[in-house]
Amino acid sequence: MSAPSANASARPSLRRVLMLRLLLVTAAVALVGTALIDVSIDREIQRHTDRELGAQATVLQRLIVANIGRADFSVSEIAVRLGDPARTASYQLWNSEGRVLARAPNLKGADLVAFNPAALTQPKREYADLPMPSGANGRMLRYAFNPTPPGTSAAPVRGLLLLAVAHDVSDLIVLEHRLDWALVGTIFALLTTVSLATWMVLSRQLAPLRELVSAADKIGPDTPAARLSVAGLPQELEPLVRKFNAILQRMESGLTRERLLTRDLAHELRTPLAEIRSMIDISTRFPNELPNAECLEEISGVATQMESIISSLLLLTRLEAGLEAPARTRIALSELLNDLLPRAHLARIHCEIAEALVIQSDPTLLAVVVRNLLGNALLHGQEGSQVALRAVALNDSSVQIEISNFAVGLTEHDLGQMQRRFWQRAIADDESAQPTGGSGLGLAVCKSIASILGLSLEFSLRAAEPDQTRFVAVLGGLTRIA
Amino acid sequence: MRILIIEDSEKLRRALTIGLSSSGFAVDAVADGEQALAHLRAHAYPVVLLDLMLPRLDGLEVLRISRNEQHQAAILVLSARDSVLDRVTAINLGADDYLVKPFAFDELLARINALARRRFEQRTPELAIGLLTINPAAGTAKIDGHALALTPREFGVLELMLRARGRLLSRALIFQSLWPLNTDASDKVVEVTISQLRRKLQAHGMGELIVNRRGLGYLIE
In chain A, what residues touch B32 (CB-CB under 8 Å)? Predict the structure, then answer.
């Protein structure tokens, strides 16, 4: 339909935006999830290490407590029991003065950690990461305890002892790093998978949009009746397409009205223009046969007719385009109708209008209808004959206006034709008949206004006097109010 | 030459009648399709001007019926319809030419003359015999280069007789061809017109151009 604008690439692509957002959300969820998993694993490993350290420290403490009273007890023998060189556990024991009482052989004489007297006052066990004397990463438990068993009367000889037990956790850290890399790889794999899956899903789900664009591209000035199909569309798009189709429908109607107006105007103005041009040509060429004054008078009549055609056609087009919305108000019908009676023809009009009739309608539009119908009746009725105007209440809620005149040569066939635009009954067989000067649009205008006001407008022929027929126009459905 | 105008616009019908009558044509004018057919059946018109949007019987229908009934008139359609389809339809139904409204009267006249030339199988716009030359399109007559002042009716008689050169034309035929149907005159007016025409030709030494065969008619040999 139209080429993409130059800055189309600057506008966000639905697919790109959806993909980006989905990837961001996925990445955020994956990162948070990975972090939680990593922290959980780290904590679990630490808890496990701490439990093991605690158990070993407890064993060591119990051994010390159980044997501290023995005269032959030597702390160094603990080393035999706990100092398993194959294991990575190390320990160190201080008395309250900071003298080292025992040290694991795998420390090779080095301190596991510096003596900290403040730790003697700490009631809780203290866990901490530390570098092992070997340089490896370690985990340490340190706490102070009273080696004298409760209830022992003999005073302990060594006072509070400070015990530090540590493990080399290098292998666990390596394991943690491996797990971290595995999690990062998982995130990348997840994001890649999500990207591909999103691309494919969006491509498939956005296919109806692409098809709509393709179908819309085919709608142009040559195919005003084309519409977008809603078949197979996702339910979210269906209302949009229906709205779009409704807009297309309105545009097509507008275009049709415009074309009709242009065509009608062009066609109906050609004949009066031909009249004007021919009269000017002939009056110029043969001034004796068609004097200029007579020519100008004729041209003036044609101009009036052209003006009438254009005004009526514009009104009709506005009515059909819905640009003339009715403004309903309370109308005293007798007042309205009496105001509409043409003063020059009052003698020819026989009125029967009930005084008390009050209706609800648009007085301006209603006046156009009544004026047109009256004008037609006066124009087309027998010369000098009576035109009847009646306004009667059919019941408590409905009123109708009836305008009739003696019909001259009208047939039932004419009744079907007269609402067509530009229809004018032939007057050729009646040499005395004068051109009407009408536009041929009056009844079409009346019909359109009646439709807008929700009224009915019917035409009929009724037998009147012998050999006479009356043409009757009935405007029905006027709403009566109290 | 006699022309039938079929046009429902009273003003245009009247203007064309005045213009064509003043140009030397005998003009009959009707306003609807039924009257048009009646005229076509009653008289042999060399040229017919036909509007398409007519009451009672549409112009295209008039065209179709007249061709079915073998009427030989050259039909020039005058219409406000300007689409190619309208023109093609009319020409396919037997129209000889198509002129869209509004039009210049001169163009209409030129096209009528062109149709007349085709009908009388005349190639050039001028008709000539000896020193006399007439141009129907321009409405001029000359003898040896000197303009001959003729009334439209005299010009029409001369043109008709030159077109029918060598053929004897009866008084009634000339009257039917050149005077409109609604005239009050009788065919004796033909004698008067020819007599006046002869006098004007005589002034230029061509008084014997029109031969009178008593009781039979007139001819230019």
Answer: 426, 428-429
